[in-house]
Amino acid sequence: MPRRSQQPASQGVALNPASSPPSTFTDGLPLPKVLIFDLDYTLWPFWVDTHVSGSLKANTNNTTVTDRTGESFTFYQDIPSILHSASTLSLPLALASRTHAPDLAQKMLSLIHIPTPSTQTSTKPSAPRKALDFFAYRQIFPGDKKAHMRGIQKSSGIAFEDMLFFDDEMRNRNVESLGVCFWFVRDGVTVGEVDEGVREWRRRRRGLKEGGGDGSARE
Predict the structure, then answer these.
(1) Residue 47 — very low, low, confident or very high, per pLDDT cuts 50/70/90?
(2) Would you please indicate which residues are annotated as catalytic (active-site) residues?
């Protein structure tokens, strides 16, 4: 695991419900059948098993949680738009995390609610939803990420070639041996990262259909 600052970057990070959805979601071209996300430094800017000290409490609007030391935690700011956009399209989402604190991660996902992006609201905005409820498939346990992918495949019936996986650690690129498309995330998931990942998945899909190479995610 690469070293990070011991000070979690979540403090002061605000969710951005006004960000635009990924453009690849509405351009009429094929999409993966499931988008899979790591948690730490991918959906949120901290290690849940290192930076978070138990006994969590949601803030008044449920968009952040505070641990017993008073530190606040939440997702990267573009996450609301990405999750709601996928939900609108009925595009399944999944989690694949190797954290050593799976119960704490699940608790955070239950406490943090995702506000409805302003670009997707009607005259009466819908109520915020628990983050956990956006993910149809959840594989949260220590171990090789290939085991997580196999669990998602078994639960969903979706072929590995139809999966797109976002993660901040290059060692987890080994899932490509199964046929999963891996997209390396350097500084947390953004709308732009999702678009780039989807484009990479499309490129590989074309290559498979044409009998070409497997393509390589950026390094």
Answers:
(1) very high
(2) 38, 40
